[in-house]
Every structure is written in structure tokens, then in C-alpha cells.
Amino acid sequence: MEVTLFENIRRQVFLTEDQQVLLENYFQPKSLKKKHYLLQEGEVNLGLAFVTSGILRSFTIDSNGFEHVLQFAPADWWMADMYSLTRQEPARLFIEALEPTEYLWITKPQLDEAFEQIPALERHFRILAENAVIAYQNRIIGNLSQPAIERYAAFCQQYPTLIQCLPQKQIASFIGVTPEFFSKMINTIPMH
Amino acid sequence: MEVTLFENIRRQVFLTEDQQVLLENYFQPKSLKKKHYLLQEGEVNLGLAFVTSGILRSFTIDSNGFEHVLQFAPADWWMADMYSLTRQEPARLFIEALEPTEYLWITKPQLDEAFEQIPALERHFRILAENAVIAYQNRIIGNLSQPAIERYAAFCQQYPTLIQCLPQKQIASFIGVTPEFFSKMINTIPMH
DNA sequence: CATCGGACTTAATATAGGTTAAGCCAGGAG
DNA sequence: CTCCTGGCTTAACCTATATTAAGTCCGATG
């Protein structure tokens, strides 16, 4: 198993050798080809993915057929449709590989069991969820208070490595503008 | 102590008598007059509030002096600047009482200690944080894909009791439009 | 009781960003 | 090698929402 999963967890909590062995058995390595789906709207999201290489993105398609990116998940990120995963209801999100992607997969029953057996894991996920709340709050504030160009600048600052491997239209969709406007915006010369 | 705190927690996890007594001692009842602040931008958010009556709201003020509401917290809701609370850094949010408000207060060190002593509490907050993530994701998707009138309809559906006690300008700020546009929008006749 | 400020409304005007449409270019599939 | 698809650009035009500015109403305050 890739070392990065434990690195991810150790950033927040301590795991004993025994707990690591236990946890390792819960996860199963999987992979996805580019443009293939980990989840489609309407399916139930049966587990949680930890990306070890490649990039996933989650998005919705609105009533007019337009996509809206909710999240990118490069290596070291977790990805799921949290609504569908926690409630075991049909997903509202699509999760798709933007690149060939490898990930570790844990099913919901296994995750629940792991929380019982490894309290430190529950703490890890509490902290991750709290951090996610903070990040989404920031994004909402940004969407409400900043023009597109500033949201783009904030995105560049926050995810400097992602800008280089994402096509523009994905970034446009994440910050909430059309590809056409995005193109105009970044080509409208802040000259030097 | 109000019974609603334990109701809130019991909705997710089981607490023994002993744990309830222990927990009860961590919380301290406090109150705020209308228009008074629980937290102002720049201060460090030293604890977490559980509202027992009244309404709190958290908001930012942007560089042009406009307010943007992040969250309302009526009775049975938790409220903090999560960024400031978890990192003990200066807050970016204001938290203000929209009505005379009573709440139970737990400081950050006490909360951390309570997590150590009561693992079920940690689970409760993991689940709360997950639910918050889901709610914020929905809000982001809505902001990206729906016009203001539909965001308002969604707000009415999700918080039917709040509509009746909030001034319009607060709702306008939450869904992300100016009070002027909000007024025009709801008075532009969907007649019957 | 008078006044003051704050919430709401209305309306004229302004603008960020969307829509439509067309063309260009590069890379993957055959 | 060629073709086609998808990503990017440009440009003309359009619309949802913002801005500015008055004016009304009402509840709080001196």
C-alpha cells in the first residue's frame, strides 16, 4: 500500500502498528481510466476514495445541462459524494477521473467498523470534515463577495499545482464562470 | 441546564449518565442582547456556542463594506468561526445576536478535553461537521447553478421557521443579492 | 409628542458575466 | 497522414443583478 495514506492520517493523529495493520486491510487499491466515472448521479455512493495518483473531480449537471465543479481531488485527497455516502441515498454528484487515477477504496460498512475499532481514525475524519467546512465557507464568502478575477487569483494561490494540470474550462467551472468569459478575463491584459 | 443540548447530542450518539454529568459541567450558560456581538473580526474565537433561544448570525464585511451572511443559528444550532476556533487565529467573521439570545458556551480547551474523555462526543461532532459539509456543498451548487429566485425558494423550504422572524435584508444577504433586488424580486408578481 | 434611523420599496441607469456563433489549433483515433 | 473532436479564442449582443437615489412607513428614543 502507498505510504501516503498513513502520512495523510499521521498528519492529524497517532496510529499504533496494530491499528495501521488493521486499517490497511480495510482499503483496497483501485484505478480508473481517464474520463471514466467513479460515481454517477443516481447511483448510491458505496464507499470513500483516497487518491494516490491522478485527479478526480466531482460535479453536478444542472437543469440546463451545464456542469458545475464542486471539488478536485489530486493525490492525498479524499473524495466522495458525502450526501450519498452518509445517507446511502442516490448521488447528486458525478465523480470522474480527469487523468488516469489510482485510489484506495473503503466501503461504508468498513468505514463505520473502522471508526468503532480505531477512535483515532474518527478524530482524523472529524478534523478533515472541520477543515472542509472551513474551506467551503471561504468559497461561499468568495462567491458572494469577489468578482471572478479575484476568485481565480484565490484559486491559483490555494491550488498552485492544480492550475498547471487542469484545462481552463474546469477551473472556469469551479470558480463559477463560463469558459468564454474565463478566456476573455485572463486574456484581458493586466499588462506589465 | 436546558434539556435541548442533550437532545441535540442524543440525536446522533448515546451518552451514559456519567458522561452527561461530566459534559454538563463543561458548559456555561450565557446570553447576548439584540445587536450585541459574540465575536468580532480580528478577535480569536475562544469557544463554541450552542444556541438555546434567540438567533445568532455569522457574517463577513467585504472590502467595499458590504455584509455577507454565512450562517444563521436559531435554537438547537451550534455557532463559531470554525477557522478561528480550530486554529486560534484572528476571526474573519462577526457573530451577532439578531434577537436576545441565550446559549451554552464551551471553551476550546474544554472542548478538546471533552473529546478525550467522551469519544461519543467526538463522533457527534464528526457527524455534525459532515452534515455541515453537505449543507455548504448544496449551497455552493445552488449559488453556481440557480437564479436568485430559486435560491430563495430553496431557503424557504430548508428553513421555514426562519423566514418568519428574519428581516428581508438578512435573507437577501444570505442568498447573495442586494436588499433592493430582493424586494423587487419577491414583489414581481408570481400572482394567483 | 416629535424626531430619527432603519427596513422596505420603486425606479432609472449601469455592469459583470452569459449566450450564441464562428473560427482556429492540437492531439488522439483510425 | 488525415480527420475529427474538444479546448480555446474572439466578438456581437443580451440579461440578471448591482448601483444610486428618492421616498414611505414605522417603531424606538429623547
Record the SSE blueprint.
The structure is a homodimer of 192-residue chains.
Chain A: H1 4-10, H2 17-26, E1 28-32, E2 37-39, E3 47-53, E4 55-61, E5 67-74, E6 78-79, H3 82-87, E7 94-97, E8 101-107, H4 108-117, H5 119-145, H6 148-158, H7 160-165, H8 168-175, H9 179-187
Antiparallel strand pairs in A: 1-8, 2-7, 3-6, 3-8, 4-5, 4-7
Chain A binds a DNA duplex (30 and 30 nucleotides) through α9.
Sum up the structure in keywords.
homodimer, 192 residues, alpha+beta, 4-stranded antiparallel β-sheet, 9 helices, 49% helix, DNA-binding
Structural class of chain A: alpha+beta
The secondary-structure element order of chain A is: HHEEEEEEHEEHHHHHH
Radius of gyration of chain A: 18 Å
Largest inter-chain contact set: A-B, 34 and 34 residues
* Overall form of chain A: globular
**Order of strands in the sheet with most strands of chain A:** 1-8-3-6
For the report, how would you describe the main beta sheet of chain A?
4 strands, antiparallel
| DSSP strand count of chain A | 8
Strand-residue fraction of chain A? 15-25%
Task: State the oligomer.
Answer: homodimer
Distance between the termini of chain A: 48 Å
The DSSP helix count of chain A reads 9
Mean pLDDT of chain A, to the nearest integer, reads 95
